[in-house]
Amino acid sequence: MLPIDNKLAAELKPRIDPHKRFRRMFPLRSGYLICNDCGAIGFEKHWYVDPVEAYRLTYQGKAQMVLCPGCTGAEHGTVQGEVIIESSNLPKDRQALIALIKQTEGECWSANSFAHIASITERDGIMVLRTTTSALATTIGTELHKAFNGNLTISPSAHHKFVRVRWSENPMPT
Ligand SMILES: [Zn+2]
Fold this sequence. Notes:
The chain is of the alpha+beta class. The protein is 37% helix and 26% strand. The chain has 6 helices and 9 strands, in the order H-H-E-E-E-H-E-H-E-H-E-E-H-E-E. A hairpin with a 2-residue loop joins strand 2 and strand 3 (46-48). The relative contact order is 0.17. Residues 35, 37-38, 40, 68, 70-71 line the site of zinc ion.
């Protein structure tokens, strides 16, 4: 196991509400739900992202605050994707990589509120991200490849329940 880089994890993870565990104890009512962590809106078992509506619902006191399934998955380490990033220039490139990863997570989350980065670790020029959806892992790999070239391999498991994505700054030996 690679050690968790808490600073990086803190940069990437949505802010944690200290009361969220308590709030999860409330029985769910029908009506609107809003995620404490990421702000996704739940209505009749569907989750979607609309910051303006979330603001309005919160302001009007019309929604119950909960932890959405995507953030619950991230908290419990339920992951469907892994991105392995290999770069000998990692210390130099870290900020640019993280900016791109965060932007990609935000875009994927807007389309699907289940998409989150669950954890990030780093050692010896290898950064490992774990994601709650396989699509997020694939998209991060594709965006890294588009932005920085290098070499990308995407290996879905049988039945596509998990995907392992590797991106390396240099072509990998075959
Ligand atoms: Zn959430």
